[in-house]
Amino acid sequence: MSRSILLADDSAVARRAIRHLVTDKLGDSITFDEASNGRDALDKAIASQPDVVVLDIAMPGLNGLEAAARITEHCPKSSVLAISNHDVDSIVCRLRRAGIRGFVPKVSIGLELIPAIVALLDGKTYFAGQSALPVAAS
Fold first, then answer.
1. What would the pLDDT profile of 118-131 be if each residue is shown by its tens digit?
2. Whole-angstrom Cα distance, residue 50 to residue 109?
3. How far apart are CA 88 and CA 60, in angstroms?
4. Candidates 3.90.226.10, 3.40.50.2300, 3.20.20.80, 3.10.530.10; CATH matching 3-132
5. Hey, where are the domains in the chain?
């Protein structure tokens, strides 16, 4: 079964590295779309309704938290996984309020991105350093 991921980061290098990592670990059954700013991420998420949106918190146009809140509003079946240089403990409340179901710090992408994506695809949450948990019913 093919799954879809929207990669939203203002760095083309970061998007390329994430795409390579995901393809290497999860195979060719993943299709990708990319966005370089928050506004583009929102538009592409609404148009394609991806399974997972990997979203940098610090982006131009519309920051990641604002984009995430709008994506979760318009794309209820899409799970948002935030990536950032921030520590999760300092922003976890804001992430959850925005509807984000997972977080991986950029320094841990090599170790935690794939488990985070798999957890979200399985309907769980994933916050770096915490166990994957089922999503609470809203």
1. 999 999 999 886 54
2. 20
3. 21
4. 3.40.50.2300
5. 3-132
The residues that bridge with 127 in the sheet, in sequence order, are 103
Distances (CA, A) of 52 to 49, 58, 124: 9, 18, 12
Strands 30-35 and 3-8: parallel
Beta-carbon contacts of residue 105 (< 8 Å; ≥ 6 apart): 83, 84, 85, 86, 87, 88, 128
Three-state secondary-structure class, residue 100: coil
What's the pTM? 0.89
Residue 5 near residue 51 (C-beta atoms within 8 A): yes
